[in-house]
Amino acid sequence: MRLCLADWTTACNSVLAGLPKTSIAPLQRVQNAAARLICGLRSRDHITPALIQLHWLPIEYRITYKLCILMHLVHVGRSPSYLADLVTAMAKIPSRSRLRSAASHRYELPSINLKCGERSFSFAGPAAWNALPGILHEQMDTPAFKRSLKTLLFERAYSTH
User: pTM for this one?
Assistant: First the structure.
């Protein structure tokens, strides 16, 4: 299966998964500067209202959004095989066939030896996917999934504001 441009940029952005906040901070500053430019804000003005007005997810949540989209494409069978081969659905694990998790739409988190292993798609993708509510796992329509996911992440990002 070929990746379209949108899927390719999603795959590239998911490379940022698991980076420490110190590595993500420069990207967030760029996003904040862009929001200030678009909204005509001064450098001392609060940026959160502008990000909310523009309906932009903070970088940390944007990374989660991209990972979850890739996992959704895996889940509905529309991803390239090289991505689908990196993750294992709980339902496909023989030792779990009698457990409730076999009926869920969750994915196995592989055991990792090093902290940097959490940055791999085979770990970060299922971790992000498994953290979603079950109702999103059941969504098979990709545009509807994207809308629901962005709404959920937007609420999580800005719930205290």
Answer: 0.83
Q: Tell me: the pLDDT tens digits for 43-62?
A: 999 999 999 999 999 999 99
Q: What is the pLDDT of residue 113?
A: 76
Q: What are the tokens at 155? A: 């609420």
119: domain range?
A: 5-158
The DSSP result for the chain, as a single string, is: -PPPHHHHHHHHHGGGTT--HHHHHHHHHHHHHHHHHHHT--TTS-SHHHHHHHTPPPHHHHHHHHHHHHHHHHHTT-S-HHHHTT--BGGG-GGGTTSGGGGS--B-----SSGGGGGSHHHHHHHHHHTS-HHHHT---HHHHHHHHHHHHHHHHHTT-
Tokens of 139: 């969504």
Number of domains into which the chain is organized: 1
